[in-house]
Design goal:
The chain is α+β, with helices and mostly antiparallel strands. The protein has 3 domains: 54 residues, Uridine Diphospho-n-acetylenolpyruvylglucosamine Reductase, domain 3; 111 residues, Alpha-Beta Plaits (2-Layer Sandwich); 95 residues, Alpha-Beta Plaits, CATH 3.30.70.2740. 34% of the residues lie in helices and 23% in strands. A 7-stranded antiparallel sheet has the order 7-4-6-5-9-10-8, sandwiched between helices. α6 runs antiparallel to α7. The longest helix has 17 residues. The two termini are 29 Å apart.
Length: 302
């Protein structure tokens, strides 16, 4: 997560106190880790004015493959193999059939003979050794022989890499009317079942809706795209109730990457216990007793 790349920061508190913790060390276990209070707090506990970020060198190169799989079980199986065999694994992006098909059609692309149940982008950062490409190809070859994947395309140029990622980025979805995007997190082993149940529930309620799934499976992160003609504010509330209700049942998070703000504020209890929410309120009250910092966000009225 990005917060792991923040080594230190400076923040201004509600009473004007300047908290300077511009740590530059990777390891520092002296007392409470105060920076984590402010990272992701959306300006409700203090205003971050400076930060120390951990930077990493660019890789010497990168290998990118697009794989076709027939089940979510094989998506997880390939992930486990990649984590074990690819030292520089840097991306593992899964696309469900409806998402992959929609974007391929929109882009005028046909990359596999038949649209697979799942398409996964596997990417490895390289250190510059000649044997790395051989190992990457061998990794895919073994997965193919063992029936984990049904087919795989290795990008032979930057143009092909961009084509794979253009499908994953899904800009064609922006053409759909009143598109709703969800950013949730779930245990990796449960993502497949969640997507099946969520898709069925949404399509039962909105038969004409576009519903598709994609995400950073290696990070437990799933995105849901929903669109239906003539959607209203009531439609959005109904979709929220289905998605976040199931997230709670599956012990997931209503926000993997994009924060809480106002939109997800009323669903925070789907992912946090009463004890956690009460402690958050105490922290907010201690640092901002008058509620002047980004009022109404994350926790609402205190």
């Amino acid at each position: 997560m990005w917060r792991d790349n923040v080594l230190g920061l400076e923040a201004v508190l509600a009473d004007g106190t300047v908290l300077s913790s511009m740590n530059k060390m990777i390891k520092n276990n002296t007392g409470y880790d105060l920076r984590q209070l402010f990272i992701g707090s959306e300006g409700t506990l203090g205003i971050i004015t400076r930060a120390v970020l951990r930077l990493r060198p660019l890789p010497a190169g990168r290998l990118t493959a697009l794989c076709a799989l027939d089940s979510y079980e094989n998506v997880v199986a390939l992930l486990k193999r990649a984590q074990k065999e690819l030292a520089g694994l840097s991306a593992y992006e899964a696309m469900w059939e409806s998402y992959f098909r929609f974007n391929c059609v929109a882009e005028g692309l046909r990359l596999f003979e038949a649209t697979p149940a799942f398409a996964v982008i596997v990417e490895e950062d390289l250190q510059g050794h000649e044997a790395e490409r051989e190992r990457f190809e061998a990794f895919l070859g073994r997965a193919l022989e063992d029936g984990v994947i049904g087919d795989a395309l290795i990008a032979q140029s930057q143009k092909e890499v961009q084509t794979f990622w253009r499908i994953r980025e899904g800009h064609a979805l922006d053409r759909l009317p009143l598109l709703l995007n969800f950013d949730v997190s779930l245990p990796i082993g449960e993502i497949g079942r969640f997507a099946d149940e969520c898709g069925k529930a949404l399509r039962a309620k909105f038969p004409e809706a576009h519903v598709s799934f994609f995400g950073h499976v290696g990070d437990s992160n799933l995105h849901i795209a929903f669109s239906v003609p003539g959607a209203t504010e009531e439609t959005a509330h109904a979709v929220d109730a289905v998605v976040y209700g199931l997230v709670g049942i599956y012990s997931g998070s209503v926000s993997a990457e994009h924060g809480i703000g106002l939109v997800k504020r009323d669903f925070l209890d789907r992912s946090r216990s009463p004890a956690e929410l009460e402690l958050m309120r105490r922290i907010k009250n201690a640092l901002d007793p008058n509620g002047i910092l980004n009022p109404g966000k994350v926790l609402g009225s205190i």
